[in-house]
Amino acid sequence: DAGVIQSPRHEVTEMGQEVTLRCKPISGHNSLFWYRQTMMRGLELLIYFNNNVPIDDSGMPEDRFSAKMPNASFSTLKIQPSEPRDSAVYFCASSSRSGYNQPQHFGDGTRLSIL
Amino acid sequence: DQQVKQNSPSLSVQEGRISILNCDYTNSMFDYFLWYKKYPAEGPTFLISISSIKDKNEDGRFTVFLNKSAKHLSLHIVPSQPGDSAVYFCAARRDRDDKIIFGKGTRLHILP
Question: Does B25 touch chain A (CB under 8 A)?
Fold first, then answer.
């Protein structure tokens, strides 16, 4: 049973470049979440989708960040242009809404370094 | 404004003893609480949860206690094992809300 799959696992790029992070949720899950983890702020929610529709993007730090979910099996988080302060670990998680209080299942994250 | 607080960044416990991880929250609308465990280079994994209608939930070596009046919950691990060394995140959500709010985590070291 495949879990949440994120790619790439590591990304190192120079500031100003576009960065695209990818996520494949668990099949059958209809909620998808993007998180960012930093030492200072811990694990913070950036945006989440229900049935491919963005529900809450209040955690997206600024307009340089955008996220899409074109279908139930794929989502992207894009940063353009990237800045050194965007360096962090980005996690994708998915959950099912078929039952009450279903836990979120996380991918192993993308470690992003902006030079 | 941190709604879920884990005030101990790290904790060291002897193998075989009890580990107690604490968590405080400020939002009285939270009604469901979760603990996640995270190993290095991996994503957090769900460990145990508790609804606000209960004050205790047990799963094997793991027990979560909830004190609603104090807005406090704790995770007990008995007995502690080397594989329990990880970062533990406390999290909370409001009724029917998809969003969960995480604390900053506590790093647990199990000493041999």
Answer: no
